[in-house]
Amino acid sequence: MTSSGTSLDRAALKQIGLLGAGAIAAIAGLMYLLAWAADSTGTGSAVKPAVDPTGRTITLLLREEPPQLNTTLATDQVSSFVLGHVMQGLLRYDIDGRLEAGIAERWTITETGATFYLRADARWSNGSPITAHDFVFAWRTAVDPASASQYAFILFPIRHAEAINSGARAVTELGVRAADDLTLEVDFERPIAHFEKLVAYTTYYPVNEAFYRSTNGRYGADYDTLLYSGPFMLTRWVHGAQLRMEKNPHYWDRESVRLDVIDFPYLTEDPSTQVNLFKDGRIAMTGLSEQSLEEALKQRWHINRFMDGSVFYTEFNHRPDRVTRNRNLRLAIAHALDADELVNKVIKIPGFLTGRSLFPSWLQGVDRTLREEYPVPQRTPDTAQARAYLALALDELGLDQLPPLMLLTGDTPLSARQAEYYQARLKSELNVDIRIDKQTFKQRLAKMTSGDFDLVAAGWGPDFNDPLTFGDLFASWNLNNRGRYANPELDRQVRIAQASLDPAERMAAFGAIQQIIHDDVVIFPEFERGLVYVLHPALKGVVRRAVGADPDLTRAYIEEG
Q: Under a CB-based contact definition with an 8 Å cutoff, are residues 509 and 500 in contact?
């Protein structure tokens, strides 16, 4: 999924006359927070504690507002985190990251298809039964070209899904049907080795057709335009300010849910604010930046570490109207930048690993990790080589001088440092001017989708535990391929990885994909993200994972005493 990346805070507003929509939303959010704090006590003299055993309530923060809570359209980590708590699909992850029964209590998978048998006690948050028809409707909606879902591709293993998405077949021809209310039958387009891993993902969640249509096109736009299938449900969503989750009384496994409320009254990307909220006992958990790590050490807090499975990279725009379509220019930029310097001297956060590939180091191959079985070639910074490639690029482009390149990035301190590093480095090494386009998370996603960039700071987190979750990202049909890279050989290798049941053949295909991405300089790998964070000592059962909602609070609880 699209990662929220290095998002941490917004720039300070300098002039009241320059306030835009984002600033107005931020002020509205601040006003709401002040009102919320006052309302929590009636006097404004105190705020809710981070952990409340009596009310079985924990208080946390969100760095960004979820851009999209329509499960058929969501693409990003923030939305997936929220949806992972309020929705559930056929299967779910246990505390050890293994798949287990969700709304489906049992299932069978063959080379030609799958059958899922739904539990009779699965209910929507309004008490109505969750049926196989809800999955049929959701999956048809996701692949319908009218929906323009950027995640339609994840359903392509289902018969006719890709043809439907391209407009070649009717939506009703999708290879999924409700044999009865509790039996869902799926036909595969081709044999697939990892289908059960897919159905735990957001796009495979059910949608109640009657409720969906009753929202008049606003499904997922507010807390009351969603019907919930998961452990929690949203009971408040003040845009730009707060979300609140409460235990879903109709959830089939409600006895395992030990929190009644998860409150998010703070929406901030500022690392200083985050650590101060934790220090003041207002939130039960927060990530640490380079600066706030120093405060955590000073306070002698227990510091946790975690690799979240995501990779980050600079993606080039390969569209015909962009100079970055030129391979020699991409080679020049790749040889001018230094990922080791970026990680060790610019980011400086423990746990980050230098980026080497689109495929992160933890992905498993046949007998060892994929990267051990298929080592990726490395480019080293080389100013002379970079300038030689630039000269070739200018000649091929018919230019004497490159126009300024637009670097689309987030509006956080870490994003800013990274962008400014690129700006300075490319100026000193290549005399190339970089214009930095800072955007909020939601706006950055919109501009990435429209192709309004030359280079973009991008990231990708795993949707399921298989190399294909990274391997098909730059397939020509994948709408998350924001730079619109197209290579028939890469597409062919992706098809092999999708269809083969032979683990060795699949891993060889991923090795070939990795080599193509390297040789064609599709991206410039930057880092694999490591997280350091602090947690309230009374909050237990929090699960951190690379695949699935992270952090997972569905089995969290408060330890009393």
A: yes
Between CA 28 and CA 536 the distance in angstroms is 29
Would the CA dihedral through 174, 176, 180, 182 be positive or negative?
negative
Coil vs helix vs strand at 247:
strand
pTM for this structure? 0.80
413-430 and 327-336 helices, crossing angle to 10°: 110
How far is it, in rounded angstroms, from Cα 444 to Cα 451? 10
Using an 8 Å Cβ cutoff, are 416 and 438 in contact?
Answer: yes
**Torsion sign (Cα): 505, 511, 514, 515:** negative
| 322 DSSP 8-state letter | S
185: exposed, middle or buried (Cβ count in 10 Å: 0-12, 13-18, 19+): middle
pLDDT averaged per 10 residues, the chain (length 561):
47 28 38 40 58 96 91 91 97 93 97 97 98 98 96 95 97 98 97 93 97 96 97 96 97 97 93 93 92 88 92 97 98 97 90 94 95 92 97 97 96 90 97 96 91 96 92 94 97 94 96 98 95 95 92 95 69
Looking at residue 16, the DSSP 8-state letter turns out to be G
Tokens of 161: 């899904």
> C-alpha distances in angstroms, 133 versus 68, 119, 130, 207, 291?
23, 14, 8, 9, 51
Give the amino acid at 44: G
Contact 453, 407 (CB under 8 A): yes
Lookup: tokens for 389: 């490639």
Closest CA to 77 of 62, 95, 56: 62
Domains and CATH numbers, the chain: 18-65+225-307+533-558 (3.40.190.10), 86-214 (3.90.76.10), 308-530 (3.10.105.10)
- Closest of 216, 57, 89, 103 to residue 155, by C-alpha: 89
